[in-house]
Design brief:
The structure is a single chain. The chain has helices at residues 6-15, 81-95, 157-169; strands spanning 27-30, 37-44, 50-56, 66-73, 100-109, 112-121, 131-139, 144-151, 171-174. The protein is of the alpha+beta class and 191 residues long. Strands 2-3-4-8-7-6-5 form a seven-stranded antiparallel sheet, with helices on both faces. Strands 1-9 form a two-stranded antiparallel ribbon. Strand 5 and strand 6 (112-121) form a beta hairpin. Helix 1 (6-15) runs antiparallel to helix 2 (81-95).
Length: 191
C-alpha cells in the first residue's frame, strides 16, 4: 500500500492503530467535491479504519502527480490533532532528507479540535520526485479524520490557495449532537 509515496505508509500506520473503543452514531466528515478527481482506492480495516484515495481523471494511485487522501481512523482519546499530525511529521522528516514543515493553524471548528500542517520533501526517495503535502487533522468522537492534498511537483500559488481553501471547508458534524450541528439539507427546487 505504498501508492502515496512517503505518506501511504505513515498514514496507514496512524490509521490502523488499535482503538480503546469505537462508537456508532451520526458523525460525518463534510468536504467539498473534488472536481475532476476520481476515486482510485478504498480500503476498510476490521477495526473500522477507512481510507480513500482520489486522483485527477486519467491518473492512477500508482502513477499520479496530484492526490487527495481521506482517512477515518479509530478515535485516539489521548491525542490532540497536533500530536496526531506530529507523528506523521516526525516520520516524514526522518524519511526525507531536506524535508521542511510548517504548522499552518490549529483550533476548533464546529466544536471539534483540528490542526493543519504542511510538509515538503525536495526529493522523495521512493518516487525520485518532490512532494508537497497539506494535512488537516480533526479529532471527532467516533473517528480521527485526516484529509491530505499531495503534489509531486511544486504547486503554483493559485493551486496552494485553492487547496488550502478546500481544507478550510473540510468539517466534521454530528446530526445527533447539537454541539456539532450539521448543515441543513438543501431544499428541493420548487416546480
Amino acid at each position: 500500500m505504498m501508492r502515496n509515496g512517503i505518506m501511504a505508509g505513515l498514514l496507514a500506520a496512524a490509521m490502523f492503530t488499535p482503538a480503546a473503543h469505537a462508537q456508532s452514531g451520526a458523525e460525518q466528515l463534510l468536504r467539498p467535491q473534488a472536481k475532476g478527481y476520481v476515486q482510485g482506492f478504498e480500503h476498510t480495516q476490521p477495526n473500522g479504519g477507512r481510507m480513500w484515495e482520489y486522483v485527477p481523471a486519467g491518473q492512477t494511485v500508482q502513477n499520479w502527480t496530484e492526490m487527495l487522501t481521506v482517512n477515518a481512523s479509530p478515535p485516539t482519546p489521548q491525542m490532540t490533532p497536533r500530536q496526531y499530525l506530529a507523528f506523521i511529521e516526525h516520520s516524514w522528516m526522518k524519511a526525507c532528507p531536506g524535508a521542511n514543515n510548517h504548522w499552518i493553524i490549529e483550533g476548533e471548528e464546529n466544536g471539534y479540535p483540528f490542526a493543519v500542517l504542511q510538509l515538503t520533501c525536495p526529493n522523495n526517495p521512493q518516487s525520485g520526485k518532490p512532494e508537497y503535502t497539506w494535512f488537516k487533522g480533526i479529532k471527532g468522537q467516533e473517528h480521527f479524520y485526516v484529509v491530505q492534498k499531495a503534489f509531486r511537483f511544486e504547486p503554483a500559488a493559485a493551486q496552494v490557495v485553492q487547496w488550502v481553501q478546500y481544507l478550510h471547508e473540510v468539517r466534521v458534524c454530528n446530526e445527533r449532537d447539537a454541539r456539532h450541528p450539521c448543515p441543513a439539507p438543501a431544499a428541493a427546487p420548487r416546480r
